[in-house]
Amino acid sequence: MFTGIVEDLGKVKSMKSGLNSMQLTLESKKIVEDIHLGDSIAVNGVCLTVISFSNNLFTVDVMPETVKSTSIQSLQIGHAVNLERAMPANGRFGGHFVSGHVDGTGVILRKRKVENAVYVDIDISEELSKFCMLKGSVAVDGISLTIFDIKPKQLTVSLIPLTFSETLLGIKREHDVVNIENDLLGKYVINHLERKKESSPITMDFLRQNGF
């Protein structure tokens, strides 16, 4: 479990590609300060497992399904990546519940500066869009952000200066692909309601009619 508060911008040092899988070696002095075999690390919002580490480097395996369904497939040697270690039980919860299980990808449509903020418009699929709500949470490349504008198949988030300068979203440009993880709690609620449509009086229409 993660919080979406990126700890470090790491760097891809080497890659080994299988037919549909990958192995990545990443550089990050901060992350390796406290790391163990089997630890979960969010890499651009994708939960991956540490299989080896030394000095300022650690290595993770990427399975075929992850390669296929996330932006990991577009990484190249030298690329920067957002990194976050799993949340400790005694740590501060600065973002929101982030599982590291990416739901899909989006494409940056536009970035624009508005006073001290940078607005980012992201094109997403209709399937991802149904889990988004105004002022709700979303993880974009593993960054916990708040949706402040939502349109059919598009969401907008706002970056504070620190997020812009210390994460990958400050580097990425229009047309770049980003990983999207919808709010975990919202997904459970919608999944439950959709499965209980016929047997339960509590439906999406019922909730809307009663102000939810």
UniProtKB/TrEMBL annotation:
Catalytic activity field: 2 6,7-dimethyl-8-(1-D-ribityl)lumazine + H(+) = 5-amino-6-(D-ribitylamino)uracil + riboflavin
Domain Lumazine-binding: 1-96, 97-193
Gene Ontology BP, a term: riboflavin biosynthetic process
UniProtKB keywords: Repeat, Riboflavin biosynthesis, Transferase
Cross-referenced Gene3D superfamilies: 2.40.30.20
Pathway(s) per entry: Cofactor biosynthesis; riboflavin biosynthesis; riboflavin from 2-hydroxy-3-oxobutyl phosphate and 5-amino-6-(D-ribitylamino)uracil: step 2/2
Lumazine-binding repeats: 1-96, 97-193
Keyword presence, Repeat: yes
A single GO molecular function term of this UniProt record: riboflavin synthase activity
One Pfam family it belongs to: Lum_binding
UniProt protein name: Riboflavin synthase
Species of provenance: Psychrobacillus glaciei
